[in-house]
Here is the input.
Amino acid sequence: MTKQQFSGHLSAIDTAIDAALSVPGDVGRLLRLRVSEEYWDADPADERAVAEEFEAEREALDGVLSLRWGPPEVLDLTPHLERSAMGLPVWPPLADLSALTTTAHVWKVGDCRVATGVGRAADFLPYELVVAVWPDGGGQSSANAASRSRPYSSARVVGFQ
Here is the structure.
């Protein structure tokens, strides 16, 4: 990854944080920072190499974000994926993120959460380096914040407290 690409990643994250904090009722967003090609007939060794490259890029990004905001927490996304699979509501960025990976690294940045992850939705599909950004709800649970901003207002939504 070039210095210019890395700078672009950080700029996109900063813009997403600003948007999440300035738009009332914002539920967050998933930024696809880098997407590989699809792997329909690829050599498994090539797939592993790309997966390792994407993970190394995430680790580098995590290192810079940790310098800014301190060490991340590790978030297990399995419960979010299970809820999505059952058709139950999940905080939108976490639903998208859990479709790609089972864990994410998360920082609390002011009144927002920022999470990084690498993965792919299914075999043969592209690898993705992603960042999820969502408002923290100002100390309220994400279930309450999500219920105010989504059409399933009476549903409980899994997220951070």
Summary: The chain has a mean pLDDT of 81. The first strand starts at residue 29 and ends at 35.
